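Hypothesis: this fold can be encoded by more than one sequence.
Test: take the structure tokens below, design a sequence, compare later.
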């Protein structure tokens, strides 16, 4: 089996990338010291998180000159995400930290005045001068997650011999991929971009991407690929996420379950845990239906010791071998004490999940408790919360905060200190206002903290995204809670995933049209087989919303 070398220089998820490479028939060898770079023929530099953190890790370990020598020797090199950013001279994310300076120029941050940052989701990587660059296709979408980007200036990098593919987000055009000679780099994650991404990795591994760089005249295939009907509409797609609540049933097997307002037991006398299928098989099914992401929530984590929760790790390992879209795992990410009395930090638990193939971890109860402490200390951060520690090590984009709010009705806006909304759905006594109280332990305990307070606090701590459930709506099939989503969207700049209540494709259209949500998640309607993910996306597409088409 041919070998490709992966630089494992910083905390990060190289498992997904290794899985993608192995799927393409190559063997992965991890490089763990600078001298080993010289052994590499094909070298991949992955990278997630903070530019300065990645660059200082590379420099401190002495990698930088070896990578520069590898590139200068004309050997195949691929940079991914921060691995692309590292090729530039520097970044506004850490101006004191120099890049590898293979490409001149410095990265800057997306403007978050009118859009969510980080830029998370599926977007284009189009190269008008070379539409088949590294098998990138104009009708495909690729998975990005980043806050910093190299702004595209027409002709600038091209005049230096680079072929450049771009994407656009909220009026800003950025470099999505670039290639020259033996070097290719992508701002998106090809290993998380389904079949479209695997094609790019294959073009690197086989050398066909580099060989075709000098190629100019368009082929028949190229002409048909770029015919207008096949060019994906520009910009970020509407993200549709499938969520699997996982727990052990009464026989001890891990099953996908689904509750009504968080009650996952049958309404019959047996009160058994609803069993809707097997997690790995269901994740694979949703991937094939075109889900843009898959989330697994271990919903009994408040009871179990997650360190011993090997089946959840095994679910991730197996899923990540065949599912090439982002995987989120939640449940039990907090400092804990293992069965034998060993203290295990939330960061260590998250690391176990990342090493097993997770791309993001989702934190629920612990985030609420951390937010309470944050306000109790007058809004100070000490760097010791799970959110801060994990986002420092793996990047903000790797930390999702899952919120489990419940409506609390009040008669007047000022009847509570909490941020209220005037609701179109009055309470049992005709109350016209409500606020959303955060809960912990899967809704079992309600706290005196509202969703605005929680989401602002976790954004300050470094969370990259909010998974916004709603206990009142969960499992009701009555549509998303648009009032809740609008309130949270108005409170934070980070992306928000709307969750709870989806019952048909129209509910997805409604939440995308009537709020500025960044993504929408469904569970029960998919698990019960009432609709497929593809039906939802087709429905959105027919109504002019940009969605990613599944490529088999
Ligand atoms: O608190 O960090 O250990 O994390 C526990 C995680 O488990 C949290 O993310 C919490 O939301 C989740 N959880 C705990 N108990 C339940 C339960 O259902 N009894 N599930 C639970 C939360 C909500 C969504 C659901 C949507 C969409 N599930 O994931 O998928 O509501 O459902 P629908 O489309 O069918 O309406 P920690």
């Amino acid at each position: 089996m041919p070998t490709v070398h992966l630089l494992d220089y910083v905390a990060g998820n190289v498992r997904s990338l290794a899985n993608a490479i192995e799927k393409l028939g190559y063997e992965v060898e991890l490089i763990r010291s600078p001298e080993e770079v010289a052994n590499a023929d094909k070298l991949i530099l992955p990278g997630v998180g903070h530019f300065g953190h990645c660059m200082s890790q590379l420099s401190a370990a002495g990698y930088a000159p070896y990578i520069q020598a590898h590139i200068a020797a004309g050997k195949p090199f691929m940079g991914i995400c921060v691995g692309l950013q590292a090729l530039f001279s520097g970044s506004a994310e850490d101006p004191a930290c120099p890049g590898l300076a293979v490409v001149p120029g410095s990265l800057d941050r997306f403007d978050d005045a009118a859009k969510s940052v980080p830029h998370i989701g599926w977007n284009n990587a189009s190269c008008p001068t070379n539409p088949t660059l590294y098998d990138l296709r104009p009708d495909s979408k690729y998975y990005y997650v980043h806050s910093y980007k190299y702004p595209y200036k027409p002709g600038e990098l091209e005049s230096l011999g680079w072929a450049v593919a771009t994407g656009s987000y909220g009026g800003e055009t950025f470099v999505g991929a670039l290639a020259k000679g033996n070097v290719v780099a992508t701002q998106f994650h090809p290993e998380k971009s389904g079949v479209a991404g695997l094609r790019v990795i294959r073009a690197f591994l086989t050398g066909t991407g580099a060989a075709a760089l000098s190629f100019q005249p368009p082929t028949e295939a190229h002409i048909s690929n770029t015919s207008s009907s096949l060019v994906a509409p520009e910009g970020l797609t509407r993200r549709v996420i499938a969520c699997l609540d996982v727990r052990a049933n009464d026989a001890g097997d891990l099953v996908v379950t689904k509750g009504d307002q968080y009650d996952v037991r049958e309404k019959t006398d047996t009160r058994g845990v609803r069993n809707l299928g097997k997690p790995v098989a269901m994740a694979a099914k949703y991937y094939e239906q075109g889900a843009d992401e898959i989330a697994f929530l271990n919903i009994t984590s408040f009871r179990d010791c997650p360190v011993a929760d090997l089946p959840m790790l095994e679910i991730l390992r197996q899923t990540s071998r065949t599912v090439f879209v982002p995987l989120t795992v939640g449940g039990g990410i907090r400092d804990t004490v293992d069965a034998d009395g060993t203290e295990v930090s939330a960061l260590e638990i998250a690391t176990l999940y990342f090493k097993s193939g997770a791309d993001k971890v989702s934190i629920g109860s612990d985030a609420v408790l951390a937010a309470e402490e944050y306000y109790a200390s007058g809004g100070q951060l000490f760097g010791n919360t799970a959110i801060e520690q994990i986002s420092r090590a793996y990047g903000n984009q790797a930390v999702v905060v899952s919120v489990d709010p419940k409506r609390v009705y009040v008669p007047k806006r000022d009847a509570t200190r909490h941020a209220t909304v005037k609701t179109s759905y009055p309470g049992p006594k005709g109350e016209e206002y409500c606020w959303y109280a955060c809960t912990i332990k899967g809704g079992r305990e309600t706290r005196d903290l509202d969703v605005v307070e929680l989401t602002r606090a976790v954004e300050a701590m470094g969370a990259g995204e909010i998974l916004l459930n709603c206990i009142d709506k969960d499992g009701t099939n009555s549509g998303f809670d648009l009032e809740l989503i609008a309130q949270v969207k108005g409170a934070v700049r980070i992306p928000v995933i709307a969750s709870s209540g989806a019952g048909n494709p129209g509910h997805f259209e409604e939440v995308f049209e009537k709020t500025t949500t960044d993504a929408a998640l469904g569970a029960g309607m998919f698990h019960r087989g009432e609709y497929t993910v593809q039906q939802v996306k087709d429905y959105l597409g027919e109504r002019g919303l940009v969605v990613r088409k599944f490529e088999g």
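The longest strand covers residues 239-248. The chain has two domains: 3-230, 239-542.
Hypothesis status: open.
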